[in-house]
């Protein structure tokens, strides 16, 4: 429950500390004293926007804090509005996002103000309220429908994507087939770009290579007398003969043997190179054409032969996927038809349950209305289909729900949005609130101006209804009715105090009990605290509510 609310420098409130009790708590005060500021403080904690206009004149910031207690656990939340700066939210003493604080509070309190009254007139909200009045029966059907509806939407989106992208897909398929065919026709080999580059450079310089490699071979093993290999062989023979006479020359003979063998191998290598060196113009032209073709593929598909081949492989995979999509379209269309049929069937079951339960829910609301001093009130609920087929379905089914209300005998009920006055709407909201489980998972209900347009006997009935709600959870109510205030476990009064000399006005909030509570009830009855009749009336209200005078 909401254990404490603290407000500092919010508009006209300099400082206020409200410690709430379990059960019914009421906040009263003269018109214009600032009762709605308390509702505004709660709204700020719930994430409503606020700026410098909410900071009390002369103050540097406005601060709203709340402490919740539940089963031994506590939660402290705060909202700070610095003048000229961005607001900050806190949760358990740490900075937090406004959304996180709001989410935490929504599990602890439900706020009902004039906005909720107006929302009651919306057909979508009336559907929510009907479903909330019979959750045990409707929740499983809602879950089954939601799953079927989402599956049908998912399959429908996939089919639309397949059909919508058909022309683009066909273009991509044609492009991929062309690209794959172009690469396959070229018969690209890994590393071919580097090999072709080397061969191309060799053929471009074939004349110089023949001249230089051939000249070197001639010097090594040519036909003339100065050939190096012949000279080395002669030296090899002479030193070999000398080494036979003097072993000291054996190392030199061995080195000459190795030199002769090395020169012989080198000459063989040069001969083989010259034999392989092809300077045929036809071969050179063919190689240039091959190089240009590969270079063209590399410009389009990759910077190397390997990248071109990798592009072709990836294109084959993409092509297989696209071709599979074509084959899938018919299968997806069949799945869409099945899923939509399942969703329609689930919507039908949900709608049938709503139509079956609506009269009982309406009868309960009607009884509540009559207990709120509307003895002739009639209340019915209609459930109708929005249309036929898949197009009629929405996230909540295919049903439209409308509340019909009649306040006077002999007048048939008409749509609530067309007939209810402010007071009747307030009572209708409270009557529905009394039976609907929306918010039953929260411990605190806050009502702002739920008594709008209500007075007399109806006000006492409203107080009883709020007291009944407060037996199951904590209720906070901002009210101007003494008949309602008398039922409260704890009452707070808001007073506006003006200092003419200082030229300042502040709003003060204090708990009233005993004589102060009697005085406040007298004020609410329009009389002075020492008015005997008013005092007697106030005591009677407290006695009827079972509260001490």
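^ Assign residues to that structure.
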């Amino acid at each position: 429950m909401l254990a404490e609310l603290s407000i500092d420098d919010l508009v006209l409130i300099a400082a206020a500390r409200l410690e709430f009790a379990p059960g019914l708590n009421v906040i009263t005060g003269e018109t214009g004293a600032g009762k709605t500021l308390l509702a505004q403080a709660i709204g700020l904690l719930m994430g409503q926007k606020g700026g410098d206009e909410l900071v009390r004149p002369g103050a540097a910031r406005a601060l709203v804090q709340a402490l919740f207690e539940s089963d031994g656990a506590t939660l402290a939340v705060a909202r700070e509005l610095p003048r000229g700066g961005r607001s900050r939210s806190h949760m358990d003493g740490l900075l937090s996002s406004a959304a996180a604080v709001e989410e935490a509070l929504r599990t602890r309190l439900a706020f009902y103000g004039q906005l909720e009254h107006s929302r009651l007139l919306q057909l979508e909200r009336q559907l929510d309220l009907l479903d909330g009045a019979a959750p045990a029966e409707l929740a499983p059907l809602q879950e089954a429908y939601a799953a079927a509806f989402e599956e049908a939407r998912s399959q429908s989106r996939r089919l639309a994507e397949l059909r919508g992208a058909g022309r683009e897909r066909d273009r991509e398929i044609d492009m991929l087939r062309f690209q794959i065919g172009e690469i396959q026709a070229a018969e690209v080999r890994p590393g071919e770009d580097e090999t072709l580059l080397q061969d191309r450079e060799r053929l471009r310089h074939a004349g110089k290579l023949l001249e230089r490699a051939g000249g070197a071979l001639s010097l090594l093993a040519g036909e003339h007398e100065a050939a190096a290999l012949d000279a080395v062989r002669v030296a090899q023979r002479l030193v070999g003969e000398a080494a036979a006479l003097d072993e000291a020359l054996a190392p030199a003979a061995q080195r000459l043997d190795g030199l002769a063998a090395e020169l012989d191998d080198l000459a063989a290598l040069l001969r083989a190179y010259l034999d392989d060196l092809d300077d045929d113009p036809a071969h050179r032209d063919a190689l240039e054409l091959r190089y240009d073709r590969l270079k063209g593929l590399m410009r389009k598909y990759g910077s190397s032969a390997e990248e071109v081949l990798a592009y072709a492989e990836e294109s084959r995979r993409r092509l297989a996927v696209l071709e599979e999509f074509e084959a899938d379209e018919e299968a997806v269309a069949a799945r869409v038809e099945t899923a939509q049929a399942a969703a329609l069937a689930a919507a039908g079951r949900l709608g049938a349950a709503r139509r079956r339960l609506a009269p009982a829910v309406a009868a309960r609301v009607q009884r509540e209305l009559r207990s709120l001093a509307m003895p002739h009130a009639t209340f019915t609920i209609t459930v109708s289909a929005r249309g036929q087929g898949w197009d009629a379905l929405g996230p909540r089914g295919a049903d439209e729900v409308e509340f019909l209300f009649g306040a006077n005998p002999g007048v048939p009920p008409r749509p609530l949005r067309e007939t209810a006055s402010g007071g009747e709407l307030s009572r209708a909201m409270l009557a529905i609130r009394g039976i609907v489980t929306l918010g039953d998972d929260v411990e605190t209900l806050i009502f702002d101006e739920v008594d709008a347009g209500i007075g007399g006997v109806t006000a006492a009935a409203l107080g009883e209804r709020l007291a009944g709600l407060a037996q199951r959870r904590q209720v906070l109510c901002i009210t101007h009715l003494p008949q309602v205030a008398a039922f409260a476990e704890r009452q707070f009064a808001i007073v506006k105090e003006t200092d003419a000399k200082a030229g300042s006005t502040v709003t003060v909030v204090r708990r009233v009990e005993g004589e102060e509570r009697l005085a406040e009830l007298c004020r609410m009855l329009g009389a002075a605290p020492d008015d005997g009749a008013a005092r007697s009336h106030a005591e009677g209200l407290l006695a009827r509510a079972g509260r001490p005078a």
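The chain is about 55% helix and 20% strand.
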